[in-house]
Amino acid sequence: MLIFLLAAGTLYFLLRGSEIKVVFSKIGEANIYLLMLGALFVLGYVCMESVIVRYILYNLKHEISLFKCILVSNVGFFFCGITPSATGGQPMQVFYLAKYGVDPLMGTLVIAVVTICYKLTLVLLTILFLVIRPAAMFQAIGNAPILFCVGVVIILSLIVFLALCVYKTSIAFFIISKVITFGGRIKLIKNPDRTLSKAIHSIRGYEKASKFVKKHPGMIVGALGLTFVQRLLYFSVTFIVLSALGLDPNWLDVIAYQLVLALAVDALPLPGASGANETVFQLLYGALYADVALSAVILNRGITYYFMMLFTLLFTVVAHFVSIKGEKAAKDNEAHAKKVHVFAHYVKDPVINTIDPGETAKTASAETETQ
């Protein structure tokens, strides 16, 4: 409900004072085939994470089907999209990995590595584009300087904290315990003890991830490479949307703008960064494409967020039923195994097997005559 309210409020805020008919007329004139390609890129973005999860599990010598990894990825993106700062996805992914036979500690390790690669890739791409596309980067930053600076501070703080979780666990424990205790005192955190317990569990996961990273540097490089592709798929959707509206954008410039947008809004405490994402998009692209900026905002957000929420919701429902079916199959197998065990015990029982069938028949006949 909050998402729909935010969406309605954002749409009203963006369209007020604008010629609504013109905005939606340009949307209607957009190339439908390119928009469908953009939707496919979003699907590829989500499914690419499933490839990364399966790749890491394969290196951990754990077999799991790609289909189940796709379900887990969809669950993660759905819960990230409906929770503030995208905090709900990772715990749910660990939960469903456990449902599909992956040990929770191993699942935590896998999702920790995926998260580190995802955050690190954003920083590395930003540094790369500051070198190869500095004009576009600084122009984009100039359109939303405060949000960009806040976003950079947040993501750098997060990376430093993750590094502490990986290499200096005791310092991470100290910091997080102080922050949660303070949050409990000012009533910002309702259940500080439970929150601290969850935080410690997460830190343990990152600590295990550090040992794994040190032992498998080649695998981490591979995971980073796949994450680069994943990020570029997502950022390229905006390039496709602008092209669908009849524009001729430069792909590298669009990627540069999307990096600034991601840094500015990803860490904000809003479900799916609703409101902030659309506003910053308008600030970044309004100066370049004033005539179609609003149409681009609506189409881009419709594909990269609302369309993604729709199909990830459907896959989350499928994931739930698959987990129920798996649990039922496991119970049936357990019951069958017990029956087999009882039968085997009966057949092999030395007391039962030493009874002479003829003697048993005579005994039964004598009992019948007595009656």
Distance between the termini: 77 Å
Q: How would you sum up the major sheet?
A: none
Assess the beta-strand content as a share of residues: under 5%
Give the fraction of residues assigned to helices: over 70%
Which geometry do the CA atoms define?
A: globular
Reconstruct the topology from this structure:
Blueprint: H1 2-15, H2 20-28, H3 32-59, H4 66-82, H5 89-99, H6 104-132, H7 134-143, H8 145-167, H9 169-185, H10 192-215, H11 217-244, H12 251-265, H13 276-286, H14 293-348, H15 350-353, H16 357-370
Helix pairs in contact: 2-14, 3-4, 3-6, 3-11, 3-14, 4-5, 4-14, 5-6, 6-7, 6-10, 6-11, 6-12, 7-12, 8-9, 8-10, 8-12, 9-10, 11-12, 11-14, 12-13, 13-14
